Amino acid sequence: MKHFLYLLLFFPLLITAQSQEQDSVKVDLSNPHATIYTHLYFLQSDSYEPKKAAKTIFGLSEKVAIKKAIKIKQVLDGKGLYVDVNKIPTDPKYKDSTGYSAYSKYVLFPERMPQIYVEKVNGKWYYSTETVTKIESMYKEVFPWYVQKLQDIIPVSGHKKVLGIELWQFVALLLLLICTYIIFLITKKIAFFILQKIQHQITKNTNLEVDKVLKKLAHPISLLISVAFVDKFFPSLQFVLEVNTFVFLALNIAKTVFWIYVFLKLVKVVMRIYSEFTERTHGRLDDQLVPILHSFLTGLVIVIGIFKVLLLFGVNATTMLAGATIGGLAVALASQDTVKNLIGTIMIFLDKPFHIEDWIEAGEVVGTVEKVGFRSTSVRAADTSVYKIPNSKLSEIVINNKGLRLFRRYNTNLGLRYDTPPELIEAFVKGVREIIIAHPETRSDSYNVEFTGFGDSALLVMVNVYFKSLAWGVEQSSKHRLHIAVVKLAKELGVDFAFPSTTVTIEHFPEKKGLNPKYDTDKERIEGAIAKVLGEFTQDIKEGKNEENRLE
C-alpha cells in the first residue's frame, strides 16, 4: 500500500519531466545544424511531431509542408544516407565556398545527393526551393510506383519478422539477386560484342591479345550494370536506415572498385592498340613511351580510386586534397633530382633528339641508345658496356645524333709507294671508283676518289664514300667488303701500299741491284686486272645476297 502511494505521488512528476524534456527541443531555424536537427528529430518514432518538422519547409501550407518533410527523410533513409548532425556547421552566417562564388547554403551529401540542401532565407535556414521542388521526382526514383502496389498485395503472414526482417523482404531480396545475376550474364555478352565491334572499327584488324583484354573489360562493365540495378531497386525493399546505410556503402565501394578495374583494363587495351601503332612507325622512341605511359596511367587510376574510396568513408575532400598537396610538396622538395629527371624524360619525348638504336655522342658518352626510362636513358657503348645517363642531364647537354644522318660518311686516305708509276696510280683510282659504284651499300652518285697529295712516306689517294645503312654493324660489314676489294685491286695491279719508312739511295754499288720493284704498266693488263677484280667483287655480292635469302 505504501509503494502504491509513492507511485501515485511521483507518477505525475515523471510524466511532467518527460513532457518538459520533449518541450525543451523547440523548432530552431537559426543555422544549418539547428534546421536539419529540427527536421530529423521531430520525425523520429519517439518524438514524432510532423507539424514541427514541416517548419523547415518555407512558403508552403502546413499540410503540403508535412508531406514534403516526410518524403525528404524517407528519401534519405531509402538511399541509406545517415546524417551525422555533429558535422553540420552551427554558424548562422555559414557560406558554401566550393563553387565559383560563396552562397548561404549547406549540402548534406554533395557526392550522392546534391539536390538536398538547406539555404538561408530572411535570416532563417530552410530546405531549398530546389529540394522542395525535386523531392517528388526523387521520391518516385527511390520508391517507384510498384512499391505501394506491392505493399497492398502482401498478405499478413508476409509481414512476420525473422531476425528483424519481414518475410516478404527475404523473398524480394532473393528475387532481386536472381534478376541481378541474369542481367550480369546478358550484359557481359552484349558488352564484349560492342567492345569488339569498336575495336575492329578503330584498328581494322583482329588481335587475339586485345580480344582477351576486351573479355576481361566486359566483365567489370557487366558488374557495374548489375550494381546499378541493385542500387536502383534495393530501396524498394524498404529496409531500415542502418541496413540501407551498410548496403549502399558496400555497393558504392564495389562500384568504385569495378570502375578502377574497368579503367585499368581500358588503359591496357589503349596501350596495346598504341603499341601496335608504334610498331608500324619508323622511329622506336615512341615504343619506349608505351611502358612509361602504361605505368603512369595505371598509377593515376589507382590513386584516384583510393581517393574515391576514402571519400565514401567520410574523409573530408578538402582536408584530403590539402594533405596530398602538402605531402606532394614535401616529397617534391625531398626528391628534386627525381622530379628533374621526370621533367627531362618529358622533354626527351617531346623534342625527340634521338630514337632507339640511334648512335649518339652525348658529352663523353658515345654509343647506341637502348632504352629511355622514367629516370635515365641506357646507352650501350662500342665495348658493350652500358651507360646510365640521368634524363635531366641528357636534356641539357649537346647531343650529336649520328642516327639522324641521311647516310654514314666514310673518309680515309690510301697511301701508295712514292715509286708507283702515274699509269698505275690512274688505274688504281679508276678501279676504286668502279668498286664503289658496284658496291650495293654505297651511294654511286656521291663519292670521291682522288690523288690528293704527297705524304711523308706515301702518295695519298683520298677515298670519300657514303654508306646507305645507318646501322653501325652494317657499316662495318660494308667497309670490310670495300677494303677487301681494294686490296685485291692493288694486288692485281701490282701496286704496293706504303708504310712509314726511310729510303737511302746509293748511286754506285758494284755488283748490287736496286730494291725498287718492277712495275708492269701494260694498258691491256691493267684493264684486265680491273675487270677481273670487279667481276670477282660482283660475284661475291651475289653469293652474299643468295646466302642471306637462304637464311631468311
UniProtKB/TrEMBL annotation:
The chain crosses the membrane at residues 167-187, 217-234, 246-267, 288-307, 313-334. Residues 337-401 form the Mechanosensitive ion channel MscS domain. GO terms for cellular component: plasma membrane. Gene3D superfamilies: 1.10.287.1260, 2.30.30.60, 3.30.70.100. It is found in: Cell membrane. It is a multi-pass membrane protein. Keywords: Cell membrane, Membrane, Signal, Transmembrane, Transmembrane helix. Residues 412-496 form the Mechanosensitive ion channel MscS C-terminal domain. GO terms for molecular function: mechanosensitive monoatomic ion channel activity. Residues 1-21 form the signal peptide. Belongs to the MscS (TC 1.A.23) family. This is Mechanosensitive ion channel family protein.
